[in-house]
From TrEMBL:
Source organism (scientific name): Champsocephalus esox
Gene3D superfamilies: 2.20.70.10, Arfaptin homology (AH) domain/BAR domain
Domain of life the protein comes from: Eukaryota
Keywords: Coiled coil
Ranges of Polar residues composition bias in the record: 62-81
Coiled coil spans: 251-310
Boundaries of every WW domain copy: 18-51
Listed name of the protein: Growth arrest-specific protein 7
InterPro entries registered for this protein in UniProt: AH/BAR_dom_sf (IPR027267), F_BAR_dom (IPR031160), FCH_dom (IPR001060), GAS7_F-BAR (IPR037957), WW_dom (IPR001202), WW_dom_sf (IPR036020)
One Gene Ontology cellular component annotation held by this UniProt entry: clathrin-coated vesicle
Disordered: annotated span: 1-30, 46-106
Pfam family, one: WW
Residues covered by the F-BAR domain: 138-399
Any GO BP: neuron projection morphogenesis
Length: 451
């Protein structure tokens, strides 16, 4: 919701074709009564001015601007508008003072009914005015939102929309730091895992060839060492390509820049609050002057005297001066609100740009994390491929021969002579028909279980 635009009611021209004296214009009150205003002398009267002779006019206070100022649009600055706050002198035919329902007072009432002031900034009520055009109608942008101050759910204070944007930036910076710490913990896990894999690859368990699968088992233990190297490289890349960039992104002057934005907008809001206070003070002063003028005018109707007329002239001058002061204060308020509006648009778009850059930066480095993770999986797969090939070539019969390599196995005979190595079944018998150095053992029936 952006600052509201308030416009003054345009004067209605005299329907009578007779010309008015120079400087005079006619207006119509809510009751349908016509009154006249002299733009030079600031005097107002219920009687039509004459071209031939000036008649004593019963003045009305000069119209003044409303404290409910208009906003400014970035594409074209709306001219500073005014809402009159005059108290018309009661005519003789009316039973109540017209000042209470004058066009200016009626417009002030309409402004109050359709506008709301939050922390010295004027906004339209929801549904009270046509929807304002967005600065960026084709896309969602900070510059079209975050205008209204909202009450803090935790307390009674109000939180400015710009403060919400600043807190979002600071929160994003904090989350970025915590993400970096998360990646750091992930790196520690990888390093510990690599250390344990490397240690396990050097374990003496199942170091003998008997009972294992030989080369396949040896390659499996070696693959643990290779996998440890892969995880160690993964942890190093995580540190340099993910953790460190997340931690150091906008580390130098980011908070200083945010403070500059904060102080600049805060100064404008302070100026706006000061201008608004001046408007309210001038408005009360004008109301007092108008009331004083009305009282003196009523006294003049009861009793005409030179002193009363002099008092009325003084009261009229003071009322006119108070109206001028109010107009000046409203002009300053409008200028300050326009300046604040323009700076809000510029600064909010800058904060939006910073937020987009931060999100894209995080997105880029989280994608780098997933890329490194996929690469690690591929390298891990390559470490077990040699093990798979060796396992495919394993033949259980070959492993059986490998276990008994170096020993002779044969079926035990029932009679005769044989070459056996069991000393308990051997006795030496030399014969002329035997070759020297050959041991012959004569056996009786011996079952294989005796061997």
């Amino acid at each position: 919701m952006k600052p509201a635009v308030v416009s003054s009611a345009a004067p209605r021209e005299e329907t009578d074709l007779r010309p008015l004296p120079p400087g005079w214009r006619s207006y119509t009150s809510p009751e349908g009564l016509r009154y006249y205003v002299n733009s030079c002398s600031k005097e107002t009267t219920w009687r039509r001015p004459s071209l031939s002779a000036e008649v004593p006019q019963r003045p009305l206070a000069r119209q003044s601007s409303s404290p409910y100022a208009n906003g400014c649009h970035s594409s074209s600055r709306t001219s500073l508008t005014e809402a009159a706050d005059v108290a018309l002198r009661r005519p003789t035919m009316s039973k109540r003072p017209p000042g209470s329902v004058s066009p200016a007072r009626r417009q002030i009432r309409e402004v109050k009914e359709t506008k709301i002031t939050i922390n010295c900034v004027t906004f339209p009520l929801p549904g009270g005015s046509p929807e304002q055009q967005l600065l960026k109608p084709n896309e969602w942008s900070y510059c079209d939102y975050f205008w209204t101050d909202k009450k803090d759910p935790q307390g009674t204070t109000s939180v400015a929309g710009f403060e919400v944007l600043l807190q979002k930036q600071l929160k994003g910076k904090q989350m970025q730091k915590e993400m970096s710490e998360f990646i750091h913990e992930r790196i520690k896990i990888e390093e510990e895992y690599a250390k344990n894999l490397s240690k396990l690859s050097l374990s003496p368990l199942a170091a003998q060839d008997e009972g294992t699968l030989g080369e396949a088992w040896t390659q499996l233990k070696k693959s643990l060492h290779d996998e440890a190297e892969v995880h160690l490289k993964f942890s190093n890349k995580l540190h340099s390509e993910v953790e460190k960039p997340l931690l150091t992104f906008r580390c130098d002057n980011f908070k200083k820049d945010l403070k500059k934005y904060d102080h600049h907008i805060a100064d404008l809001r302070k100026q706006l609050a000061s201008r608004y206070a001046s408007v309210e003070k001038s408005r009360r002063a004008l109301a007092d002057r108008q009331k004083d003028l009305e009282v003196k005018t009523q006294q003049l109707e009861i009793k005409i005297s030179n002193k009363t007329e002099e008092d009325i002239k003084k009261a009229r001058r003071k009322s006119t001066q108070a109206g001028d002061d109010l107009m000046r204060c409203v002009d300053l308020y409008n200028q300050t609100q326009c300046k604040w509006f323009e700076e809000m648009v510029t600064t909010s778009m800058e904060l939006e740009k910073l937020e987009v850059e931060r999100i894209e930066w995080i997105q880029q480095h989280l994608r780098q994390y997933t890329t490194l993770r996929h690469e690690t999986d591929m390298f891990n797969q390559s470490t077990v491929e040699p093990v798979d090939k060796l396992l495919q070539n394993v033949d259980p019969r070959q492993r059986q021969r490998a276990v008994g390599e170096g020993e002779q196995h044969r079926r035990c005979p029932t009679r005769g002579y044989g070459h056996i190595n069991h000393p308990e079944l051997q006795y030496f018998n030399t014969s002329d028909n035997t070759d020297p150095g050959t041991v012959h053992v004569q056996t009786t029936e011996v079952c294989s279980s005796s061997l």
